[in-house]
């Protein structure tokens, strides 16, 4: 099987603001505009094409697999920017990260209200602790 996810369109009220937010927190680059799209491409070649629209935008979920070092850097950027973080998608564990699958994970919102997630281990990596409920406080988090 050679099918790979290649790109998607991310709806936003302000493509510059949203693309720069994502690129900043993940340590990525914003690409050159292509028509109505402003791209941010991940290391595995998936492009998120940010598009400004003037409609009600239903919140979507986008998750990013990062290294432990990248997770540290991302968490620092989120705290410094005053972006609320939480260990779960429902806000039951604010100002905390999770330790699911033997790694670390965090949820936060982008400027358009999309639910973003960064995790260091893919879901199911550690069948013994898929959702182990263990969380850690993030110093300085709001
Ligand atoms: Fe997720």
Please tell me about this protein's structure.
There is one protein chain. The mean pLDDT is 95. This protein has 142 residues and is α/β, with parallel strands linked by helices. It has helices spanning 15-26, 68-80, and strands spanning 7-12, 37-41, 47-52, 61-65, 96-98, 105-109, 115-119, 135-137. Helices cover 18% and strands 27% of the residues. Fe (ii) ion binds at residues 61, 63, 117.
Keywords:
single chain, 142 residues, alpha/beta, three-stranded mixed β-sheet, binds fe (ii) ion
Question: What is the topology?
Answer:
Elements: E1 7-12, H1 15-26, E2 37-41, E3 47-52, E4 61-65, H2 68-80, E5 96-98, E6 105-109, E7 115-119, E8 135-137
Parallel strand pairs: 1-3, 4-7
Antiparallel strand pairs: 2-3, 5-8, 6-7
The structure holds fe (ii) ion.
Residues 61, 63, 117 line the site of fe (ii) ion.
Helix percent band: 10-25%
The span between the termini is 44 Å
Strand percentage, roughly?
Answer: 25-35%
Q: What class do helices, strands and sheet pairing give? A: alpha/beta
Rg calc: 15 Å
Arithmetic mean of pLDDT: 95
Structure, briefly:
This protein is α/β, with parallel strands linked by helices and 142 residues long. It is 18% helix and 27% strand.
